[in-house]
Amino acid sequence: GTTHFGYQQVAVEDKVRKVADVFHSVAGKYDLMNDLMSGGIHRLWKRYTINRSSVRRGHKVLDIAGGTGDLTLKFSQLVGPTGKVVLADINDSMLNVGRDKLTNRGAVGNIEYVQANAEYLPFPDNTFDVITIAFGLRNVTDKDKALASMARVLKPGGRLLVLEFSKTTNPLMSKAYDTYSFTLLPLMGQLVAGDAESYRYLAESIRMHPDQETLKGMMENAGLVRVEYENLTSGIVALHTGIKP
Ligand code: SAM
């Protein structure tokens, strides 16, 4: 009935506002917090993602939910002057931090910055050879819609890579990780960024995210084929890949 629908609508708007508040708040400290929270391991997960992308010179790449641009920076070097990388993010604070960082590192000429929602990508069909979304999908309200939108703008034969927190395969790790994310993470957020609440949200969003097999099914529903995943660090993170037929 309308009551139920009305309630859902409020919940959806709440999530969108919450995600926007979190990333406006953490943007300036985002890179520092990433290194602290993961002990630097996020760099390895990202490098692995780049290696699995089969990106080549001349390719067009979309890094959606690209934030402060770690993947974009690497892609921009790999596609070279004949290629192009679009760093897209819904949040202009994150986008600004990313643009400043990449410009300071001399990555200019083949990067475009676009404010966009992953659910409604503002690009023509069949545009990109490679699309990445790293630690972004769990923040998206309608994940199925976002995956379909990514599939639409991929070229046939193009590859989608989803790097995201997942379900650990090791029960001991799982317990330690839960304790870590719900106590230490907000504490570090408070100490370093003066914001415990945002990091509590991040921990919560990690716990709520679909597990490996569920996400695989969602990617297949979006029309991708040869969907596979690899667990990284005992499944704390998983890298899913799929091809547009
Ligand atoms: N990809 C970067 C990385 O791995 O360091 C940034 C990840 S950060 C945890 C998540 C990013 O997703 C934020 O920059 C946030 O603004 C963005 N985001 C959240 N919802 C989004 C949406 N619906 N569409 C596009 N970007 C979104």
TrEMBL record:
PROSITE patterns: SAM_MT_UBIE, UBIE_1, UBIE_2. Pathway: Quinol/quinone metabolism; menaquinone biosynthesis; menaquinol from 1,4-dihydroxy-2-naphthoate: step 2/2; Cofactor biosynthesis; ubiquinone biosynthesis. Its EC number is 2.1.1.163, 2.1.1.201. One of its GO terms (biological process) is methylation. Keywords: Menaquinone biosynthesis, Methyltransferase, S-adenosyl-L-methionine, Transferase, Ubiquinone, Ubiquinone biosynthesis. GO terms for molecular function: methyltransferase activity. It catalyses: a 2-demethylmenaquinol + S-adenosyl-L-methionine = a menaquinol + S-adenosyl-L-homocysteine + H(+); a 2-methoxy-6-(all-trans-polyprenyl)benzene-1,4-diol + S-adenosyl-L-methionine = a 5-methoxy-2-methyl-3-(all-trans-polyprenyl)benzene-1,4-diol + S-adenosyl-L-homocysteine + H(+). S-adenosyl-L-methionine binds at residues 68, 89, 117-118. Belongs to the class I-like SAM-binding methyltransferase superfamily. MenG/UbiE family. Methyltransferase required for the conversion of demethylmenaquinol (DMKH2) to menaquinol (MKH2) and the conversion of 2-polyprenyl-6-methoxy-1,4-benzoquinol (DDMQH2) to 2-polyprenyl-3-methyl-6-methoxy-1,4-benzoquinol (DMQH2). This is Ubiquinone/menaquinone biosynthesis C-methyltransferase UbiE.
